[in-house]
Amino acid sequence: MTLPCLPADIVSETLEHLHSDLKSMRSCILVDRMWCKVAIQILWRSPSHYKSLANSSKFWSRMAYTVISCLIQSSTGNLIEILDMEKDYSQFSNLRSQTPPLFDYLLFWRFLSLSDISNIKKYICLEDKSTYVDYLLESELYCSFLSCGSRIKYLELPFNVYLTQHPGVEITLSNLQCLRCDANISSDYYAELSTCCRTLQKLYIEIWGEDNEGLANLIKSQKALKHFEIHSQIVQIYPMISDALCTQVNSLRYLRIIGNPCFETGVIGMFKHLTTLILENFNHNVEILEQMNFPELKVLEVVNDTVTPFEIYKGIIESAAANDSKKGGGGGLKRIYWPLMHTTVDLNPRVYSEYVVNYCSNILFVSIYVKESSLAELEVLLVHLNNLEGIEIQVDSKTSPSHLFNLLSTKSPRSLTMLSLMNFDSEWMMTPEELDVFFHDWGNRRNGEGLRIYFQRDLIYSSHYKVIKKYGRKGVIQEFMEYFQSIYEIEEVAMCVVPSPKSEHEARSTVSIAIFATICQVINRDYRWCNFSSEMGDIPDYCPSDYPYQVPITLKACQIRLANLICMWLYYASLILLIPTCWSLQTLADKKNLHVDTGGYSIHESYNTGWPGIRKAENEIIKTISESPNSSEIIWSASPLDNNIVDIGGFPSGVETSGNAEESA
Q: Which InterPro entries match (predicted)?
């Protein structure tokens, strides 16, 4: 039996949705050669993004070993000379004579950060590392990662290594899409970089010193910069960087300012095509936000702004809906994330609610500050925002939990599936009974639709966990997380996950029936010895006590045969019961995206995270199979790889010992 060859692009799209599930990705590696290569490319795209591994010394030790094994095979000899200078080189001394790795893993790397290089260096040179050796090693690592053929798309610019001086690096730099850098790096270095790096889509800048002419030239040289972030804690205007950014007016869509707004007055207002504006710790030069007009704005995030009057943000919210109104849309902002809203100058919750309802009728996520006296404003939002999917509620300490929960359970639109609850003075308290009533009412009105909830850690105690676990088992809660600093963390990871209770219950039932059926079958088999000889005479069907048995053992044999018949019928009855049970489990899996079986391929999806788009990829697989001219003849079987590939495991457990790596791959 041979495995049908699915298109690599469909396999790639499917595995993209499994990239955070290391266990599933490891299983995919063992399907066949093509799946192995696709999975390895995804896993090695950005190894440090896996938070469970990024802080592991064992992980980085093995990572360094594999990276060095790749570099020794492709290096011009500089790396070997550098390692020879190091006293602790013994751990790598045997790599020269070993078989090359199965893949050139460095070519799969997409996101290269300063911490990646630092961790690799740390586990290459553990002792007595001189500054000179450290510099040479770092320079050689960057040169190797960015050499010809590299696919690096995101790069954090090193402070002391001039990348433009290395041959072959220009090609990689010319294809960079994202760059994170520091304005304190030499202006001449940026000037050289601007000659080859012209296709950036995202640029992240940290400024701690003076204006930088070379960095300004780098910004000007970009053909279509779409995403710009700047972080500055110094109260200073940077005219050259400010003027350079103005050259990207037509292409810039995303602007994030952290700390001091270091632009001249009127610069931000020039970006009429912005779709995302994020202001964090915005505490100076408020006048640069006055008279702002962003007709295409969809996302507004304001984090810890204690100086900008609410009146200015009213104008931004209103202007975002102007363009949609002219086009006949019902538009405006789609997302307003505003933590610490109560610190905003002259905030009026009633006016804020009116502006959101009037100018953001199709909003999907919104933040709101709620007091007992302003619950009516929350009700207005819930009643009129029919497309609302998520809400962050910042609760005043005097707000009644029962009133708040009753409002949420009775007035929320059916589209609302995400609730974030915050209290910044740590004085607001809710009882387990109030939480229980809320989840009960929510479940009754939503017919089992799961709610994703995110509560601040101070609000949750052991008694609350019991309630959360109870309704997690009932399917009312789909996901729960505590102790997060911002919505960004919510989008990335769930710290505490409630498993699927319904599937657990049915799984236990299925296992119980299966065990019982097995016991019955064993009894049925072992009692066959009871076919006694004909000397016992006839054995009646129901073993009456007044029957004239020829010998006493005949009655015992009759009773054993009767037990045998009962076990046999129970066995077949349990098999019949298993059929609808297994069918209901498969139906539940389809609804919850828990498991999709494509005839031998098992595509697993976490119950609580739900990656968007995986159903589309799975449907393409099924469609491809059904449209195959010989689809009825396809036999699905997973062909395991050779043992030498099993050691890959997605990430290095050392260097593969394949005798013929390329052929086996």
A: LRR_dom_sf
Output the CA–CA distances (angstroms, integers) from residue 176 to 169, 390, 555, 577, 588, in the order listed.
Answer: 11, 35, 88, 59, 44
Which 3 state secondary structure label does DSSP give 179? strand
How many beta carbons lie within 10 A of that of residue 553, not counting itself?
A: 12
DSSP state, 158? Answer: P
pLDDT digits (tens, 9 = 90+) for 289-346: 777 889 999 999 999 888 888 998 998 999 888 766 555 555 689 999 998 888 888 8
What pLDDT band is residue 425 in, cutting at 50, 70 and 90? confident
> pLDDT per residue over 146-184, tens digit each?
886 778 899 999 988 888 877 778 888 888 999 999 988
User: Of the candidates 288, 283, 286, which has an alpha carbon nearest to the alpha carbon of residue 245?
Assistant: 288
CA 145 from chain centre, in angstroms, equals 26
pLDDT at 96 over 90: no
User: For residues 445 and 544, which has the higher predicted lDDT (pLDDT)?
Assistant: 445
3-state secondary structure of 194: coil
Ordered DSSP codes for 429-448: ---HHHHHHHHHHHHHHHTT
**Which run of H or E residues covers position 503?**
helix 501-526
The overall pTM is greater than 0.90: no
Mean pLDDT of 264-287: 85
In angstroms, the CA 492 to CA 488 distance is 7
| Three-class DSSP category at 391 | strand
Q: Are 95 and 650 in contact (CB under 8 A)?
A: no
What is residue 453's three-state secondary structure? strand
Condensed to tens digits (0 to 9), the pLDDT of residues 489-537 reads 443 333 333 333 444 455 555 556 556 656 655 555 554 444 444 455 5
| Domain 305-338+340-485 falls under CATH 3.30.870 | no
Nearest to 360 by CA among 407, 395, 409, 325: 325
Domain ranges of the chain: 1-39+599-665, 44-176, 305-338+340-485, 502-593
What DSSP string describes 204-234?
EEEESSS--HHHHHHHHT-S---EEEEEE-S
Rounded Cα gap, residues 644 and 485, in angstroms: 44
Which amino acid would we find at residue 402? S
What is the rounded CA–CA span in Å between residue 237 and residue 210?
9
Locus of tokens 């100018």 = 359
Cα(437)–Cα(407) distance, integer angstroms: 12
The C-alpha atoms of residue 538 and residue 265 are separated, in whole angstroms, by 109
Calculate the CA 196 to chain-centre distance. Answer: 33
| 3-state SS class at 496 | strand
Report which DSSP code applies to 21.
Answer: -
Element (H, E) at 60: helix 57-74
Contact (Cβ atoms closer than 8 angstroms) between residue 495 and residue 484: yes
The pLDDT score that the predictor gives to residue 3 is: 52
For the chain, what's the residue count? 665
d(CA 514, CA 508) in angstroms, rounded, equals: 10
